[in-house]
Amino acid sequence: MQETKIYRRNKDEFIYNFAEQIRGLRRNSCLSLEELSQGSNIAITSLKKMELGHFNDWEKIFRLARFYDKKIRLEFY
Question: What span, in angstroms and rounded, lies between the C-alpha atoms of 26 and 59?
Fold first, then answer.
């Protein structure tokens, strides 16, 4: 039971942080969703979902990272 709570808390924290980083990248580059969509070749609806923390297509995440010239790093701690 305790492990399930820890897993859920870690998952929620990961999703929140990841979505926050995606929103921050767009805001810092002063791009609208439409401009980002055109530049990254990702649908606006997908970008909106990613900014809300709903993502399940890693290919789109990799495309977004390439657009911003960023690396994706997962950490275990």
Answer: 18
Check whether 6 has a pLDDT greater than 90. Answer: no
Specify the long-range contacts of residues 18-25, CB closer than 8 Å, at least 24 apart.
18/53, 18/55, 19/50, 19/51, 19/52, 19/53, 22/50, 22/51, 22/64, 23/51, 25/64, 25/68, 25/70
pLDDT at 65: 93
Q: pTM of the full predicted structure?
A: 0.80
DSSP states of the chain? -HHHHHHHHHHHHHHHHHHHHHHHHHHHTT--HHHHHHHHT--HHHHHHHHTT----HHHHHHHHHHHT--------
- Give pairs for 28-31: CB < 8 Å, separation 24+: 29/68
